[in-house]
Amino acid sequence: MKSLEELKKELLADGIIDADEVKELEEVLYEDGVIDKDEADFLFELNDAVTGKANDPSWEIFFVKAITSFVLDDETSPGEIDDDEAQYLYDKIKGDGQVDGTEKALLLNIKAKSKNFPKILEDLL
Known about the structure:
Radius of gyration: 14 Å
Order of helices and strands: HHHHHHH
Protein name: TerB family tellurite resistance protein
Distance between the termini: 37 Å
Strand content: under 5%
Helix content: 55-70%
């Protein structure tokens, strides 16, 4: 299996993420059924690299689903955003200095599904 770095290099070769690449990402990242922190970091790096590009719409759908699952389907605080998760999301979203459309869609999805939505995240909207 490819490493995340090899996969990132391949995906970013043309600067966009197309539908076939989204399918490949889904197969690789959900192989074990969960999105872990390294995989979530990887997805944020990819998103930062392709922000504003002509990505396939399935990229945003996949990104939102995977990151929402990472923060809401954990064992520590299932269904809600704890302080560490809120800080993690804030740092990742603000990491490139902007809140892009995909990240905004992520925040709105988490807000709709979570039992709580910390102020630090509300301020990003």
